[in-house]
Request: fold
Amino acid sequence: MRDRRKWIVRTEKRNHVSLIINPLLRPHLTTLAATVTAPLITRFAPSPTGYLHLGHVVNAIYVWGIARALNGRVLLRVEDHDRIRCRPEYEAALLEDLAWLGFEPDFGLEPLLRQSDTPFVYEQALEGLRATAHVYACECSRKDIGGERYDGRCRGRGLKVATGRGIRVQLGNDMEKFEDALLGRLFQLPAEQCGDLLVRDRDGHWTYQFAVTVDDLRQNVTLVIRGADLVSSTGRQIFLARMLGRRNAPVFLHHPLIHDDLGEKLSKSAGDTGVRELRSRGLSAPEVIGIAAARVGLVDPGMPIHASEVSRLFEQRVLPGP
Ligand SMILES: [Zn+2]
Reply:
């Protein structure tokens, strides 16, 4: 995949073209527009568990770039369902960095859309789920489960919901089939991948899977644009959304990730890839956006890009080179 990308970049240079359609990096916009149920609403949904880094900037480029290219809207959502790891200073920092970069959400900023402000929304959704699915208490720890997949051992025990117990929902055995806007057709079997989904953990926190699925439904998010590390969550979220009463699943687009020198996904303790660090070294916002775009191969290195211009990276026309 990487080799093919390089080959395309070389071809571009020989033809004196700075941008060209690359199906591995850019969605086919006409197809995407036809697939998404109107209105097109996507979201930028960081967790305040650390500072923004180049990985977030890549996500912002895709979110704002595609939304603007298709006249869609961008929702900002602070995903602070994890009450242990989230911190107010990280939230303040990410809002400040996002504004500095120049990415302006269409809604969700004032007032700020924050998961922790609306616990009743998740309570209500859980009640709704009880009517359509088998919801049960589970007392297993991570250690008891010992892996990614939960085997359903508490499913028939009839445990009462209580402090120190999690809540799960039973998933059916159906195969989920969906079209990723970049990766194409995918098949996933959530019952085999993860087993019955944890909705609320043993500490009483709503889980990522549940909170984002509820939010994407109630906020009418019709296009989910996120990093490829989350692709395995998609089938289970479509499944859960259907159980919550969603008729049309959102369209998903999973974009490439930036990796560090060791080949790992960028972490929260980002070092020289943190937006704050790059700012403190005197880089401008367009330079930081350009670095992020180049790191995934959207542009050649050394090309500053203003936040208001990122849609040009996705528009399906070939732009002349300098
Ligand atoms: Zn259990």
